[in-house]
Fold this sequence. Notes:
The protein is an alpha+beta fold. It has helices at residues 2-6, 29-44, and strands at 12-19, 48-54, 63-70.
Amino acid sequence: xxxxLTHRRPPTSHLDLxxxxxxxFAPPIGYLTHVLVPTLRKLLGIHIRVDLLRRGFxxxxxxxxxxxxxxxxxxxxxxxFDLSRRGKVGVCGMxxxxxxxxxxx
Length: 105
């Protein structure tokens, strides 16, 4: 996504990404949409939108997301930020299930 922030034409980049949205040893799509993107928006003023179109799980994949990222203004730099002070912490939960199989005798 970093290259989308400095690309000037068009001023908004659109990415159609396919593959695994929830896989071992990688941040799940929920982290991207509920933690990373809001943090980048708050700390750096970056405008990124992520739409989950379909979840994809390892090993099959099949997931699809659409990302829209606005480029920075010409001559603009990303601001410095300080994460040394703890802010208000909230806790929320999320769950999902790919498929449920009923065990029959």
